[in-house]
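Note to self: keep these together.
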Amino acid sequence: MSERRTGVTRETKETTVRVGLNLDGSGRVSAEVGVGFFEHMLELLARFALFDLEVTARGDLNVDAHHTVEDVGITLGQAFAQALGAKEGIRRFGHAVVPMDEALALAAVDISGRGHLSFSGKLPASRVGDFDTELVPEFFRAFAVNAGLTLHLRVFSGRNTHHIIEALFKACGRALGDAATRDPRVQGVPSTKGKL
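Structure:
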């Protein structure tokens, strides 16, 4: 059985991002991107997906975190797509509903080959510490489009923005882990079209 691991580097005038990803890991994470709250969210996503993840990024944080967060999403999405390879034998779909105290969030994933994000819900505060919360959907959109997956995220309830975002990242991790899992009963690509 082939290893599902890869490394991807993205360099622009605004950022340099390096991602190492192993889909068949145990949830070991190292994230150094210069945005503490975002590093914590990346750790949660990989930990609950049971992916091994290494991310380093240098970006124009003197401007703001937008380019860094978006480019990490792009690079992580590309790494995910590469690590999946031909997508043979995977479950393809995954979903999770995750509570975090008063917050409740859902993530549903289809590794469809069609990049799309549907995000529904309110983030009550515009910032968590130094993190701009409008970057949450930006990250997930960049990731979904570059990973070639359909991602639905829903916030059902919550008052504390930190809790809501944490529930979203945990739910996404669980859903991604399930969708990318190999199932010995699945022969070839899980599609009646024969291709994803």
